[in-house]
Amino acid sequence: MRSRSWIAAVLAASVLTGCGASAGPAAETGAGGARTDVTVEPIEPARRLTDANGVKISLPKEPRRIVCLFALCDDILTELGIVPAATNSALLAHEDFLGEKRAKEVPVVPGGFIAPEVEAILSHEPDLVIGLEDTHGKLAPALKGATTFWPMQPETWQDSVGYLRDVAALTGRTAEGEKAEKTFRTKLAAAERTRGDRTALIIYGSDENFGVATPEGDAAASLFPKITDYPWTSRGVQGSYSLEEILARDVDVLFVETLSFGEADGTLSEKLAKNPLWGKIPAVRDGNVHEVDSEVWAKGRGTRSLGIVLDEAAAALR
């Protein structure tokens, strides 16, 4: 199941080893995974590397001007103390990133998330452009020869940590990368130690035709089996869960990501409230429905965003 890049298409259609720096502690396995290792392996500066998806990146020097076409890039750069040359994400305006005032100083790439304009991207003279492979991969031919394009495809929190390490290696921000990884791993390990048994669910969408975020293809959801009961698995791009199935699972805490494509016309939970089954879900009945910031929960994907997810989830799951 692909990460959030295909959300717009799915909503429309169904309703929505590397070498070098990538290597880190062994991946967790099992229902909730083994306890998260807080050990952070040293990150070595690199000009060439192969990421976890086999994408080879080679740069003649440390990149100074980086254009971000999706929010994981903005998250990583913020963790490393770098401001992107341009972005098409709203994540930077969040108070735990640059904040609204500083974010307004970062140029926005026109064309939106789905179709950022190539000429506008190149006008910022980037050393590196980072995009989401299954959305922005089609831009590669137009960017070839003018800049280096890095198509990322994060699906779990481990992927996000790997990309953080890779970018830290390429930019020479190795100490910052190690610190960000350590902070995140420590927070996740602490959340694991107080793991509860309340049943949680993350849903996303723009109307009553919603999707369920599952650990196999969603970075935020991949955290949940480690901190609480999260009995949801991927059914592939075409599969989803019905309100009847959700009702049968006795969901105690519900997190809702409202995704709007254009002018917002209400929250997803407000729209789902029109369905009589909605009010019967324990989380709804008991007032444990939490509309969360989709820029962070659905789009951020990086260690800073995921740290915010852990904080907000922990508060809601108490």
TrEMBL record:
Domain (Fe/B12 periplasmic-binding): residue spans on this chain: 65-318
Signal peptide annotation: 1-23
GO annotations of cellular component type: outer membrane-bounded periplasmic space
Coiled-coil blocks: none
Listed GO biological process terms: iron coordination entity transport
Repeat found in the keyword field: no
Recorded superkingdom: Bacteria
InterPro entries: ABC_transptr_periplasmic_BD (IPR002491), Bact_iron-sidero_bind (IPR051313)
Pfam families: Peripla_BP_2 (PF01497)
Residues that span the membrane, as ranges: none
Gene3D superfamilies reported in the protein's UniProt record: Nitrogenase molybdenum iron protein domain
Keyword Electron transport applies: no
Keywords from the named record: Signal, Transport
Subcellular location as annotated: Cell envelope
Family note: Belongs to the bacterial solute-binding protein 8 family.
Protein name: Iron ABC transporter substrate-binding protein
Species per Swiss-Prot/TrEMBL record: Streptomyces toyocaensis
